[in-house]
């Protein structure tokens, strides 16, 4: 009688023998294999047939090993461009922020570090959402090869903790600045609540990716969800704050911010729905 778990264990042994000795790579492959098995079983295949077909789709151990070592520049250029744009925007923001603080005649390091952490952290979360959207686009177009899948997974694996750390740092620095200027750490400000929600989501993303044994598709959808939460925290929080405290600024810039927020939420919702369906397989020559 067929038993799935021993069969997957034997499949992993064959992959190890073929040269795939990195545990993270094997975990990624196993996650993808289980996802395929689940989809085939949902379509009516027996567990044994689903396993055999999923293994066949994934390829032989040698071909999979070759595929995972073929990550050429044309596969990862969107990731590299994303990293470069994020770094450039962060440096420009740091320079502009320092100039404004110096022109204002005072150098509030806590406030400056808080603002910079917000820009870098929230911008990083939006970039994670962009990687998730790219995953969905490649999947729906049949271009999601194992090499591209690995490239995006590696980007989220490395960038997720950095982004979560920056957002948490922004939240803590904001609390410190509030204590120094207003005498209390927490004011139930809409931007504070948004930062707390964004921090919780990003930490959950990192934890689930590392320890939850989620499929790569689930991780990418969590990344898009995190970008959605950050959009609400960043732009929605500012809208609500201005509604409560600064009606003049709300009248001047509220409509533009509201439209930007609506567009961002619409884009994220579209790709979240698209990402709910399994990606089509792709093979590179």
Give me the secondary-structure category: mainly alpha
- What is the strand tally? 0
Question: Given the C-alpha coordinates, what overall shape results?
Answer: elongated
Mean pLDDT: 82
CATH topology annotation of the largest domain? Four Helix Bundle (Hemerythrin (Met), subunit A)
Specify the number of helices: 10
- Beta-strand proportion: under 5%
Radius of gyration: 22 Å
Main β-sheet description: none
What share of the residues lie within helices?
A: over 70%
The end-to-end span amounts to 37 Å
CATH architecture classification of the largest domain: Up-down Bundle
Q: Kindly give the count of domains.
A: 2
CATH class of the largest domain: Mainly Alpha
Any low-confidence stretches, pLDDT <50, length ≥5?
281-285
Order of helices and strands: HHHHHHHHHH
Protein model, in words:
The protein is mostly helical. It folds into two domains: 4-68, no CATH class; 77-275, Four Helix Bundle (Hemerythrin (Met), subunit A). 83% of the residues lie in helices and 0% in strands. The protein contains ten helices and no strands. The protein has helices at residues 4-18, 23-42, 47-58, 61-68, 73-103, 109-140, 146-182, 190-211, 216-245, 247-275. The longest helix is centred in the middle third of the chain and has 37 residues, at 146-182. The radius of gyration is 22 Å and the shape is elongated.
What are the defining features of this structure?
285 residues, mainly alpha, Four Helix Bundle (Hemerythrin (Met), subunit A), 2 domains, 83% helix, disordered C terminus
